[in-house]
Amino acid sequence: MPWYAFLLAPFALIFRIVTGIRNFLYDHGFFKSSRAPIPTLVVGNISVGGTGKTPMVEFLIRHLIGDVSLACLSRGYGRQTKGFLKASLDSNASDIGDEPLQIFQKFGGKVPVFVGEDRLAALKKMAVGSPGFQLAVLDDAFQHRRLKGDVYMLLTPFSKPFFQDFIMPVGRLRESRSGAKRADLVVVTKCPEEISSRAKAEIKRGLNRYLDRNVPVLFSKIAYGSVYPVGHTHPFSGAVILLSGLADEWLFVSYCREKFTVLEELAFPDHHDYGNTELEKIASLAKKHSAQSPVLLTTEKDAVKLNSFANQGFLGEIPIFALPVEARFEPEDKQMLLSYIREKFRKK
Asked: What percent of the chain has pLDDT over 90?
């Protein structure tokens, strides 16, 4: 907790009261929650960003795509459009948001990706336009109470599980810790490579104070793949200028420092919109380190934005590479998770 937390405490109390009243009204039927015409798997959190939602959504799609007719729905955070849209080959990050575009491109359009602020209305439109959908995976809709989801997967990071966090602006919680009771299962994300049984037990004890009985608690890690070129065929030199727009860039930066020669680091807020100022900075750094043949290494969701500039003739000074990331589970947790989800939706 920051030293100035006492100055923020009154605002946190107001935020807690407002969100608490809202949840009370939904929990007791004063505000209506409705099920969608398509079964829904909601992936979300009760904290602001940095829990690994997109890698988890991609993990679920990757392992469920052969089981059911699948779609993905997101709000499309950071886009410059409004309303309900379907991703297409012509879509860009300004149209649908960086993460929905990343998901659409990663699966080659085999999984329809939609965006819409009103998830319930969007799901109704999806059901009319494509009546064969058997499951919709929702990215970040845990607080969207108008929708009564079928299964809620709550993510919380190992480094700062929600039971150790505080409500905004003192901490990063979007609502009180008690909101976790809506979860059907919990995944502790971004775990270290080695995690002891004792550490797992301690986290489970902390979580279980806020969960309904018998809610499964699983543990996942972040795994990085091989870098790949974005819109070019230049070789990867290993001398990199890092660029990231993440809620928490620590893992990304730490991994890159270990694996590559990091010449410079550029870190921006989550879902940052890049413009001329950033492009000029990148070009300047590329020139500064030209003797080392640098490349720009970034995240996949930042790459989908930067690629649009490259396609328009910008950033010709430096090749762009993306570092893919995915969620991974120990075999027993992976089997438990997929079996749980398949069993739940088999009954729908």
From this structure: 76
Write the CB contacts of 294 (distance below 8 Å, at least 6 apart in sequence). Answer: 237, 239, 240, 241, 263, 285, 286, 318
Q: ∠ at Cα 121 (176, 96), nearest 5°?
A: 85
Q: Look up tokens 């009985």; give the residue.
A: 213
Does 49 belong to an annotated binding site?
Answer: yes
CATH number at residue 150: 3.40.50.300
d(CA 129, CA 84) in angstroms, rounded, equals 12
Q: Is the pLDDT of residue 337 over 90?
A: yes
- Residue 54 labeled ligand binder: yes
Residues 342 and 284 in one domain: no
Domain range holding 63?
Answer: 5-223+329-346
Query: What is the pTM for the complete model shown?
Result: 0.92
d(CA 133, CA 252): 35
Judge if 162 and 18 occupy the same domain.
yes
| Beta carbons of 295 and 239 less than 8 angstroms apart | yes
CB 200 within 8 A of CB 168: no
Q: What span, in angstroms and rounded, lies between the C-alpha atoms of 209 and 98?
A: 35
In degrees rounded to 5, what are phi and psi of residue 205?
A: -65, -40
> Contact 157/171 with Cβ under 8 angstroms?
no
3-state percent helix, strand, coil for the chain, nearest multiple of 5: 40, 20, 40
- Count of CB atoms situated within 10 Å of the CB of 47: 23
Q: What are phi and psi of 317, to 5 degrees?
A: -75, -15
- pLDDT tens-digit map of 90-111: 999 999 999 999 999 999 889 9
The mean pLDDT of 204-226, rounded to a whole number, is: 94
47 is in an annotated binding site: yes
Confirm or deny that 48 is annotated as ligand binding. yes
DSSP reduced 3-state for 334: helix
